[in-house]
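User: Can you predict the 3D structure for this chain?
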Amino acid sequence: MWFETNLLLLLAALSLEAVFGYPRPLFARIAHPVVWVGAVLERAERRWNRPTLPDRRRRLNGACCVLLVAVVSLSAAAAAQGAAMLWAPWWAAALAVAVLAASLPAQRGLHDHVAAVRDGLDSGGLAAGRDRVRHIVGRDPASLDEAGVARAAIESLAENFSDGVVAPALWCAALGLPGAAAYKAINTADSMIGHQDSRYREFGRFAARLDDLINLPASRLAAGWIALAAATLPGASPGGAIRAVRRDAARHRSPNAGWPEAALAGALGLRLGGPRQYGGRVVEDSWMGDGRAGTTADDIDRALALYRRACALQIAAVVLVLVAIAPWR
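Assistant: Here is the predicted structure, written as structure tokens:
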């Protein structure tokens, strides 16, 4: 029964977010939960990550900080869900919980951000493309040519499909709204403090490792959705996606990002990844796929078309599972 309830919540959340996007009117008033998590992390980092502290203490403080925001997020989501069910009519409670859950995946938001890069390249050329892509990637936009801008947008689409769409859905299916909220808190912690520079290397070590662990199943599932979606898109290759994943995914410096990136590269006949520049420092990485590295705005369009199909397949899978378990109630 609990699993069926979680799946119904997930179906409502994914459908609401796909149609309406991020529920801005609600969070314009109360701010998004990720903003709350970010504020707590920022304050804790200033206090618990002082350069004068020994490395061991900074590692311990970082771990405690991440566990704190995860437990608080899980508890707050459980309390909100319980209060809604207790004090509101069932239909109003279900809608309220679904709206809260719809704030956690980012299907439509991710699509719009990547499409904005495509529009920038089309209408304003390289300068506009660089300006748009800097909102979704951490690398230096000034170091990118037009092919690099398009490639960065497609890589961001692949990676964020895994940790911004598939992973919240997976944890919602497993643990409901509290599980998805805890996942989002850990993922936010990794994005804020899970870096390799001297300031965060020790304090953010636990956040980075925990985020890698909880994204492990989602990254593999995301690659599967991309390969299946390629079978529905003319000109895309599901076999190419599978071959690229088997050959290249494990060579990526991230244990998770290589799976969706390799799948998308193989499906579309592209070559993604490779060396990139962050803060004036070149980071060496392996190439995903063996196709063209000279990507264009048209390739962003094809990647978005594949992404929309992968998102639709995920929703369809939830419906199929609900239908399959219905006789076993």
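The chain has twelve helices and four strands. The longest helix spans residues 146-193.
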